[in-house]
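Section 5.1 Outputs to date
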Amino acid sequence: MHSVLSWYATGGVYSASKAAIWSQTNTLRLKLLPRGITVTGLHVGYVDTDMTASLDVAKIAPSDVAAKALDGIESGAYEVLVDEISQRVRGALSAPLEQLYPELAK
């Protein structure tokens, strides 16, 4: 279980730990491939859980996360980008850094 913060460094140490998990997932995926074992990474923004209860932001229901995860695994997806923010941030990784972090623009 990753987070959109795997790719978006606004979460401090939390972002760094999620980025490490993303890297480890890619490593495991390649390492286990010869044994016929697949690894699916699940990326999501805010999920409606106790951890995000105090945040006044749009959140996805845990049941929707689970359904999308299972659909992705069933289809053989390497990554499941559960919500729009995960899709948008993942797509921005190939763009100039200033697009993801406008504060860097001079």
